[in-house]
TrEMBL record, chain A:
<dbReference type="Pfam" id="PF02361">
    <property type="entry name" value="CbiQ"/>
</dbReference>
<feature type="transmembrane region" description="Helical">
    <location>
        <begin position="341"/>
        <end position="357"/>
    </location>
</feature>
<feature type="transmembrane region" description="Helical">
    <location>
        <begin position="263"/>
        <end position="283"/>
    </location>
</feature>
<feature type="transmembrane region" description="Helical">
    <location>
        <begin position="239"/>
        <end position="257"/>
    </location>
</feature>
<dbReference type="InterPro" id="IPR003339">
    <property type="entry name" value="ABC/ECF_trnsptr_transmembrane"/>
</dbReference>
<feature type="transmembrane region" description="Helical">
    <location>
        <begin position="303"/>
        <end position="321"/>
    </location>
</feature>
<feature type="transmembrane region" description="Helical">
    <location>
        <begin position="63"/>
        <end position="86"/>
    </location>
</feature>
<feature type="transmembrane region" description="Helical">
    <location>
        <begin position="35"/>
        <end position="51"/>
    </location>
</feature>
<keyword id="KW-1133">Transmembrane helix</keyword>
TrEMBL record, chain B:
<feature type="domain" description="ABC transporter">
    <location>
        <begin position="2"/>
        <end position="242"/>
    </location>
</feature>
<dbReference type="InterPro" id="IPR017871">
    <property type="entry name" value="ABC_transporter-like_CS"/>
</dbReference>
<keyword id="KW-0813">Transport</keyword>
<dbReference type="InterPro" id="IPR050095">
    <property type="entry name" value="ECF_ABC_transporter_ATP-bd"/>
</dbReference>
<dbReference type="GO" id="GO:0005524">
    <property type="term" value="F:ATP binding"/>
</dbReference>
<dbReference type="Pfam" id="PF00005">
    <property type="entry name" value="ABC_tran"/>
</dbReference>
<feature type="domain" description="ABC transporter">
    <location>
        <begin position="288"/>
        <end position="537"/>
    </location>
</feature>
<dbReference type="InterPro" id="IPR003439">
    <property type="entry name" value="ABC_transporter-like_ATP-bd"/>
</dbReference>
<feature type="region of interest" description="Disordered">
    <location>
        <begin position="337"/>
        <end position="375"/>
    </location>
</feature>
Amino acid sequence: MTASGRRLPRALHPAAWWLWAIGMATAVSRTTNPLLLALVLAVLGLVVTERRTEAPWARGFRYYLGMALAVVAIRVVFRCVFASGITPADHIMFRLPHIPTPSWYAGIQLGGPVSLEATLSAATDGLRLACLLCCIGAANTLANPKRALRVLPGALYELGVAVTVSLSVAPQLVESVQRVNRARRLRRAPATGMRALRSVVIPVLEDALERSLHLAAAMDSRGYGRAGTATRASRRTTAALMLAGMLGLCTGMYGLLDGTTPRALGLPALAAGSLLCCAGLALGGRRVRRTSYRPDPWRLPEWTVALGGCAAAVLLFWTAGYDAGDLDPSLYPLRWPSLPLLPAGAILLAGAAAFAAPPPPVRAGASAAAPPAPQPAPAPAPPTAHEAAL
Amino acid sequence: MIRFDHVSVLYSGSAAPVLRDVDLEIEEGELCLVVGRTGAGKSTLLGAVNGLVPHFTGGTLAGRVTVDGRDTADHPPRELADVVGVVGQDPLAGFVTDTVEEELAYAMEQLALPPDVMRKRVEETLDLLGLADLRHRALAELSGGQQQRVAIGSVLTAHPRVLVLDEPTSALDPTAAEEVLAAITRLVHDLGVTVLLAEHRLERVVQYADRVLHLPGDGTVADGAPADVFRGATVAPPVVDLGRLAHWDPLPLSVRDARRAAAGLRETLSGLPVPPVRPDVPARAPLLSATGVTVRYGDVIAVRAVDLDLLPGQITALMGRNGAGKSSLLWALHGAGPRHGGTVRHTPRTDEPAPPPAGVPRRAGGSRGLLRRRTPAAAQAGEVALVPQTPTDLLYLETVGAELAQADRESAAAPDTARGILDRLAPGIPGDSHPRDLSEGQRLCLVLAVQLTSAPRVVLLDEPTRGLDYQAKRALTGIVAGLAAEGRSVVISTHDVEFAATCADRVVVMADGDVVADGPTAAVIVASPAFAPQTAKILAPLPYLTVAQVEQALATAGAGQ
């Protein structure tokens, strides 16, 4: 299965990538062990470099990394400046000049001692957040966002279309701004200040409005929104089901992710919530009657990737077979955190997605602007449409 | 197939109905051409076929429109998607997805066809329209002709019985237009699709039409065989104009038929002197001389070391396919666009001190701020004016009057200078109307008036003939001739051969950034079979370019006898 040289390149089902990433994110949210978090980052990096395509959205992972770094830095800096959470047992590294605050502002201390423990705790906390961010980033990088929107259930179809359209309209808007701005310079004395803004914004908005009307007419005459079978009563039932389901989902999620709430609140609420949501979506989906062209298949690699991610989440949630304290190592007394073997194994297992997923398709001429990067592996013949459909 | 039963359409806020009591029946497999002036109701007629009028546009439709037995009153456009396919003017504006293949499948997805059927139809359509090589390409990267073919393909996959095309080639260059029209005629002949087609440049399509619907503008529709309808139509291609002039019967619609009928006319004309299209331009010192102008975008060279002298009183047509560098050259000559090499020198006016030469090449990608305020020296001095391809980009105020007043202020001209110019170009545009409500031709005149307020000596027009009907083009020819008569030099980039033949003294042809031909209109245009106007093709080897020339020659001959 892992002999990637022989497998036909194709895109993995976007839902598989998202399930995998959400599983990883769930696992991450359970731990502040810096070793495990670093392992997660390494795994994410490996999978992204191995399995991303050359499409524009696939170049975004570095921005997520940058954002993650910023999150860690901001957290640490804030903790230092506001000097909170320092106990008498702490090791003080240095002192920042203390800025006296007025009495009505006494709750917050500016400057003062900076302790090693508080800084470390901020850093690991930040790292956890950073890892969460990178999980989402990885999913966005690996899965084609437009294809991901296509797997939305029928009831959410309109939402998906709105997002897709806005994605394709954005570049047109940029082009429109550039064109108008260029044309402005043709006038004798181009307007300045507020007037200049207006002289760009008004033609661009008029242009955008005209274009969206054209698009709406085109979509309408091509059959968008053909009537399905929805009555007023069924629409109301759908809304009620969805609302209750969402409530259940939120409660369940909270119960599941926050270790202090009673366990009973977690899974049952989550299950009930998802059941209600599914019922609502199924009912709502009935009014949309459409099919999808060349749907992504769901085969063994999809199962492997999705289950790998879920397994990591389950293992870190089900603190059995290892010391739960290792997930959240204490800073008192200060010592090097130990690496619990089972969670580490689970994360590595999720990392197998880098090899379980088929190699991404190479499309010569998919983007004329950016020549495709040289493929390290001896890539088989470019996928014909036939192969990609398999 | 399509039935109009006493149909009238009235838009709210307008006094007269756009269509009045229209009775029509269009049979299966016909290619039906819809002709008429701008605003005569062509788009309304086409929109009524699939119910966009009035379901989408608003307004009131009286009477009954049925397509394949379905009444549009009960079926909104989306419920007719499997019967009627609609293709608009700007293909890019109607695309929902972003690759060719997905776009072709979109309509079928909406119709809930099973995946294997969709797959088969997409492959067939790719072959039918010659798009197989482009299947994975992003839509935005395609050329205009390819985009329009994808747009046609994307409605064809639903296997509609009727295809409605509203000016499908108006945004395309001649080659791309040929490509699209060839695809359309093939559909009619091979698949028996009923096609309803509106088109401005009739010279391209008239010979393919089985039937013509003529909208004279008063809400009625005249309907008949092409040769009969064009006898009295308000719009007509040159071949028809020539046929009317020479009283040929039956009226020829193609160059081939006209050439056969023209043997006698050629004989009559052969002994007569050929009147010039435009009076000769006396050789004088150029107003603007450009040497070695080069424009680059990254690695692509848009304009390659072009030399050009613009003489006073001369009208130059700049021709060439899309992407040949016409616009880049115009912008570089104006000074607002980038120029990476060469000089553009303006001859100083005799009555004022010499402006500084704008000879310093500018670097690419300098300060590209959103609201950059740099305007080149020559344009600042009001020497050169440019009307861009989408003139409305320049307009941002609510009323025509406000735009004109703003133009006066910008040029430090006397109040009402711009108003005066506009009234000369296009009289009767009310000052309180919104610029977006004007017709295409009126908007062009408004922007031209704004740009002429500073009394420039060189006027550059970037594709002004887009979307103009024959009358508007004739008016533009008059305007341009007027500008030249005042001693200005005018450059017009255009795809329209017939327009260039009637209005230009000189034609410059560009290809791939180079100037490949530069000379008097007659010499450049007639030399190439692709560029030759219809009159030249019909009367060759006689050097006639326009119907007006023939008319004049015959008139002088008649007066002489």
